[in-house]
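TICKET: design request
STATUS: open
ATTACHED STRUCTURE:
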């Protein structure tokens, strides 16, 4: 087993069921390899927040075309919402799916991911929550080829459904900086984040929506990872649950696996 030279790492993917315990592993990769965290979930929540701030409380179903499996054109959405803010429109689209525990359609997710990945020059990223469908995997591989970039490896964080449900219901997040807390394992002091904002429960952290996300993972996200594996990207599996959840154990549980690839 040899040390991994951070200069050789371009991008890494961290995948796993929502609530499996990806965040502590992402923190290790960010620190070890000097990477930045790019989370499509955080991006969608950012737009969703803008939509909530805007304060529209009508029915969102009127914006969705079930036959075409697409939203109605943006100018019609703008008219219905009473604003031509693109952020609010995107926030509405995110909310429509995120709040149901369903994946946002590929045509929206891929476009959004492409623009955020490009901001960082398609390099030095830990991709979190993307790709999550085989179609997204295909899109990502094309994007990497076009920009002469690569994914070095995938870290799959493994955890059982029942443990995830138990953990996730007690998860709290900071709406300002995105930091993640847990009422038992990592309680926020006086209900506040280190940055001072009051922590909240994610709107999709209810049992019903968690089960829906777990189903989406099996149906779509696992095949997405298998697609990348079939295209030659190495994968290591690390346990999301550790008997002793110390910083050292977390670090070793991932780094020992990563080192086996080099
Ligand atoms: P996460 O924070 O990664 O659990 O993502 C929260 C929610 O954002 C998911 O349940 C989806 O509704 C949406 N989302 C995030 N990433 C993706 C993606 N790659 N494809 C589709 N939907 C996504």
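STATUS: resolved
RESOLUTION: sequence designed for all positions
ATTACHED SEQUENCE:
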């Amino acid at each position: 087993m040899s040390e991994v030279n951070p200069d050789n790492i371009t991008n890494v993917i961290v995948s796993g069921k929502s609530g499996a315990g990806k965040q502590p592993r992402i923190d290790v990769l960010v620190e070890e390899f000097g990477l930045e965290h790019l989370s499509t979930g955080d991006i969608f929540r950012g737009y969703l927040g803008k939509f909530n701030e805007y304060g529209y409380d009508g029915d969102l179903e009127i914006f969705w075309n079930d036959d075409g499996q697409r939203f109605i054109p943006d100018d019609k959405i703008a008219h219905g919402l009473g604003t031509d803010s693109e952020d609010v429109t995107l926030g509405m689209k995110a909310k429509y799916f995120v709040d149901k525990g369903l994946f946002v359609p590929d045509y929206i997710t891929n476009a959004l991911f492409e623009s955020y990945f490009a901001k960082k020059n398609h390099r030095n990223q830990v991709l979190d929550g993307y790709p999550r469908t085989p179609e997204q995997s295909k899109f990502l591989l094309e994007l990497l080829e076009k920009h002469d970039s690569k994914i070095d490896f995938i870290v799959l964080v493994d955890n059982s459904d029942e443990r995830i449900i138990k953990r996730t219901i007690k998860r709290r997040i900071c709406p300002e900086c995105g930091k993640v807390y847990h009422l038992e394992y990592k309680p926020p002091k006086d209900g506040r984040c280190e940055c001072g904002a009051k922590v909240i429960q994610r709107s999709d952290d209810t049992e019903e929506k968690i089960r829906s996300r777990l189903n989406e993972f099996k149906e779509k996200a696992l095949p997405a990872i298998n697609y990348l594996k079939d295209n030659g990207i190495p994968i290591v599996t690390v346990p999301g649950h550790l008997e002793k959840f110390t910083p050292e154990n977390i670090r070793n549980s991932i780094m020992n696996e990563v080192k086996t690839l080099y």
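CLOSING REMARK: The chain is about 45% helix and 15% strand. The chain has one domain: 6-160+214-259.
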